[in-house]
Amino acid sequence: MIEQGIININKPKNYTSHDCVNIVRSLTGIKRVGHTGTLDPMATGVLPVCIGSAARITEYLDLDLKKYTCEILLGIETDTLDVWGETVSENIAGTEELIQNGNISEETVKRTLETFKGLIEQIPPKYSALKVNGRKLYEYARAGETVEIVSRRVYIKDISLKELSLDEKKFTFEVTCSKGTYIRSMCRDIGAALKCGACMSGLIRTASGAFTVEKSVDLESLKALKQGQDKRDPDTGRIVEYARALPEELNRFIVPVDFPLTHFGKIIVDEDRVKWFCDGGYVNEKQVTVKSYPQFMEEKPPIEVRNEFRQAYNAYMDINGREAFLGVAFFNEHTKNFKADKVFGRG
């Protein structure tokens, strides 16, 4: 049987995040599959894909930081804020002059990047999946309609210059940021700060929370697990039966549901209270063993999160020395009780 959990896919270029979800659906035969955060089609790197009940953890990952390696091209601005869009402004001569007179140099680039650290306001790209009034922004853009795009506060933990090529009018930087940060918007804003204009020319997501590109699986390796060929209707050509992957082969790439929930504390629920807990009942402090406390119980999180996440615990039961994940519980300071927010297993 296919395990409920998460596959850390190294998404290649020319695939949408939804393409990756559909491939996992076809390999598993499980409809409930989703990813933890969109990666643009021309970007590559870490894309965690959740299978079955694991798809319910997405809201718990709001505190996860993401890490990117980005290449930025100076002197060109486009409608999509990357090199794959339509050019709306070109300032090649002006950029070369800024480089020649020293206004754009290794020192000024580093100094500019430093100004983006911390909490910043950012306007998302008009070509993005962010919804406004129930519609995605790119739907307005493609229809030639205008809509107000409100700036959002995002957190940049770190940003640094990795490689500089002024002859080619481009450089590469590394950034660690909060969920909801648009790197394309950052490239636009960096270009404005350097007074030359800029757009993104390459992007790799190297980490998303606990998931890293070093421990990801290539999409082609997953597709190669398919046993045989899909069966098609001879008249319509439509697929009527998908070829699946063998569970024992696919499960090698699936990590448990609780793997990314690193910000939460940890409790072991007493054996005689497990069923009660999983059925939605409260358990008190004497009916659990606290193994660790939530990271942000005392520490202030860098971005706003639900107050419950500051008192969130991964709950387990002990089965002959093996810890079985039950779900996520919130602790109520007033009643001094733990209650399941979501249950993923019953031991």
TrEMBL record:
Active site per the UniProt annotation: D40
Record keywords: Isomerase, tRNA processing
Gene Ontology molecular function terms on file: RNA binding; tRNA pseudouridine(55) synthase activity
The keyword Chloroplast appears for this protein: no
InterPro entries xref list: PsdUridine_synth_cat_dom_sf, PsdUridine_synth_N, tRNA_psdUridine_synth_TruB, TruB_C
Pfam families from the UniProt entry: TruB_C_2 (PF16198), TruB_N (PF01509)
Sequence ranges assigned to domain Pseudouridine synthase II N-terminal in this UniProt record: 25-183
EC number in record: 5.4.99.25
Reactions that this protein is recorded to catalyse: uridine(55) in tRNA = pseudouridine(55) in tRNA
Gene3D superfamilies linked to this entry: Pseudouridine synthase
Biological processes annotated in GO: mRNA pseudouridine synthesis; tRNA pseudouridine synthesis
Domain (tRNA pseudouridylate synthase B C-terminal): residue spans on this chain: 184-261
SUPFAM superfamilies: Pseudouridine synthase
Enzyme class: isomerase
Protein function: Responsible for synthesis of pseudouridine from uracil-55 in the psi GC loop of transfer RNAs.
PANTHER family: PSEUDOURIDYLATE SYNTHASE TRUB1 (PTHR13767:SF2), TRNA-PSEUDOURIDINE SYNTHASE (PTHR13767)
Sequence similarity: Belongs to the pseudouridine synthase TruB family. Type 1 subfamily.
Alphabetical list of NCBIfam families matching this protein: TruB
Protein's recorded name: tRNA pseudouridine synthase B
Highest classification ranks of the organism: Bacteria, Bacillati, Bacillota, Clostridia, Peptostreptococcales
Gene name of this polypeptide: truB
